[in-house]
């Protein structure tokens, strides 16, 4: 018990304070005793580094397999092969998984009195932890933080069934599946599917949006028109392909659109309503099928959109909207704006101008004349040379050792809470006896949870800067616009840090993650227990140095500082109980800067 409490204090001091005021800046050294061990350490760092970005957190088996394959055919070749294999997989459906879990428990999707909507969360966590198509799932998680929807309001938690016997509350899972299918489409298809989604139409109110009547002071809703430009495609200000903002003759940022553009796009997004409706306002709610068009309710007049392009009068509302989306997609901001957001979600908070420019170039043309090819863009993001350069790996001859050095604040990011915890469970946990992971949303632990964004602006802003040294940090000339950002720190305050530490402390100390999935009169009480498997680590428990090295390689991609590792080894040597020593080590590493900052 003393060991656990001591580790908890270390967590609060090192993980919270160090993460808030810096990153693991120096990395550590690995003593090696053979050429084979030297190569294994160097390649294993790369395997872990790559999989931390491309999955919800790598398992030991995945790291071992990637290390072996990288040794066989080379680091980049193995990573590209893995990406190709991932894109070849069928996506694991969230709707189908939720239904399978409900069926296993004997409930219908419109069941009353059992908190049936929890299966939306159960399915998300189960898939994040177990699904083989990890890359597609990570891309979908990135896309839903760009084209944001939320369960807040709008009837998204209703248990009612539509004409096809689909429950309203599963509409959000259907939206997620749509983005999952989009993971290897083009971004133009993303914009089209999002625009016609009844979930987005409900959330941003362009569903049942009718053409205006200026003589009566009636105008179309502008909500979606504004957000599809500001958040889903081009951003607020014009930029070069490398993310550098353009300025006018007076040195001012140049807006990408104005209020007249918003009004024109608002007129464009009219006439859409639920599939199967008799009129634009008369039809049963359907959150599972794309919206349909009522041309008579669509504004058919000419519209001047971006870059002065005017769409002619068009009685065909679908054709008109598609032409408008093409106009939006043709804007030069789309490539750098969306590329930057994807890089932030997968790799680092502050892509350099060169890195962003290379990815944007692939976004604009995949080599075959296709713009926005998601597969090509994701490859460009995950295989770019700067991805690997965020960790420098070198050799020293006397003594023979491998030196691992993160290359600085500009090349890292804080792991977001949901991904951090999913990675912990993927690495150590086992499901319930029937094979399911019935986790609740867990937003009470760390604010962030699937389908629970507080607004269309996501859980954090891409340009968020926490108070402290980062606001005064002098960015290098590599970084566009001279400032660096740390989006995830908008969530990670002292309260969230403490809650996360307590959650993981309890899971590790008890070797069991426990939750209450449901507790009411009809469903009864279902307590979930997910046993933790620390057997690999416990075999190293007699060797604190070896245990620390193993955890560094597995959880931190080798970026633990020598100072932290030495302090950890000293603390572990004072604990004689191997079980407590092992669990204390795991907890300390998970909540250390090296465990929470992704290099």
UniProtKB/TrEMBL annotation:
InterPro entries: DUF1800. This is DUF1800 domain-containing protein. Keywords: Signal. PANTHER family: BLL7424 PROTEIN, DUF1501 DOMAIN-CONTAINING PROTEIN. It comes from Crateriforma conspicua. It comes from the Bacteria. Residues 1-27 form the signal peptide. The keyword Membrane does not apply.
């Amino acid at each position: 018990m003393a060991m656990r409490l001591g580790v908890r204090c270390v967590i609060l001091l090192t993980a919270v304070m160090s993460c808030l005021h810096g990153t693991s800046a120096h990395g550590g050294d690995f003593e090696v005793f053979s050429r084979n061990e030297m190569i294994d350490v160097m390649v294993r760092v790369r395997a872990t580094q790559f999989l931390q970005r491309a999955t919800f957190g790598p398992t030991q088996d995945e790291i071992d397999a990637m290390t072996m394959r990288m040794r066989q055919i080379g680091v980049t070749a193995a990573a590209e092969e893995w990406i190709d294999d991932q894109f070849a997989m069928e996506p694991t459906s969230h709707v189908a998984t939720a239904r399978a879990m409900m069926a296993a428990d004997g409930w219908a999707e419109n069941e009353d009195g059992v908190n049936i909507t929890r299966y939306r969360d159960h399915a998300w966590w189960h898939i994040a932890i177990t699904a083989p198509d990890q890359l597609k799932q990570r891309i979908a998680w990135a896309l839903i933080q760009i084209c944001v929807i939320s369960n807040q309001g709008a009837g998204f938690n209703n248990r009612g069934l539509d004409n096809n016997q689909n429950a309203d509350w599963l509409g959000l899972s259907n939206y997620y599946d749509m983005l999952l299918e989009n993971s290897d489409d083009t971004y133009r298809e993303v914009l089209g599917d999002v625009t016609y989604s009844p979930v987005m139409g409900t959330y941003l109110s362009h569903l049942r949006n009718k053409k205006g009547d200026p003589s009566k002071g009636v105008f179309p809703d502008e909500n979606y028109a504004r957000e599809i430009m500001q958040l889903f495609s081009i951003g607020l200000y014009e930029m070069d392909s490398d993310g550098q903002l353009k300025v006018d003759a007076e040195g001012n940022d140049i807006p990408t659109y104005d209020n007249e553009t918003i009004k024109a796009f608002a007129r464009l997004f009219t006439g859409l309503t639920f599939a199967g409706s008799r009129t634009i306002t008369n039809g049963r709610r359907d959150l599972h099928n794309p919206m349909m068009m009522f041309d008579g309710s669509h504004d058919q007049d000419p519209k001047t959109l971006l870059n002065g392009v005017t769409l002619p009068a068009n009685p065909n509302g679908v054709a008109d909207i598609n032409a408008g989306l093409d106009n939006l997609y043709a804007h030069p901001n789309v490539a750098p704006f969306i590329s930057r957001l994807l890089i932030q979600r997968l790799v680092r908070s502050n892509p350099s101008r060169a890195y962003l420019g290379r990815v944007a170039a692939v976004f604009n043309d995949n080599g075959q004349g296709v713009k926005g090819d998601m597969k090509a863009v994701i490859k460009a993001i995950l295989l770019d040379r700067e991805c690997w350069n965020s960790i420098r790996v070198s050799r020293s001859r006397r003594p023979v050792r491998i030196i691992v050095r993160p290359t600085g604040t500009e090349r890292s990011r804080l792991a977001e809470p949901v991904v951090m915890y999913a990675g912990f469970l993927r690495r150590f946990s086992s499901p319930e006896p029937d094979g399911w992971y019935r986790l609740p949303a867990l937003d009470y632990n760390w604010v962030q949870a699937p389908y629970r964004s507080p607004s269309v602006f996501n859980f954090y802003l891409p340009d968020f800067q926490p108070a402290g040294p980062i606001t005064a940090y002098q960015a290098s000339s590599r970084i566009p616009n001279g400032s660096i950002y740390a989006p995830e720190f908008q969530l990670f305050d002292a309260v969230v840090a403490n809650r996360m530490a307590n959650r993981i402390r309890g899971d590790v100390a008890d070797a069991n993650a426990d939750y209450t999935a449901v507790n009411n009169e009809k469903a009864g009480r279902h307590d979930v227990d997910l046993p933790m498997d620390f057997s690999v680590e416990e075999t190293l428990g007699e060797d604190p140095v070896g245990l620390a090295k193993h955890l560094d390689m597995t959880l931190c991609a080798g970026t633990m500082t020598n100072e932290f590792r030495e302090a950890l080894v000293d603390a572990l040597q004072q604990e004689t109980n191997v079980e407590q020593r092992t669990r204390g080590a795991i907890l300390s590493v998970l909540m250390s800067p090296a465990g929470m900052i992704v290099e």
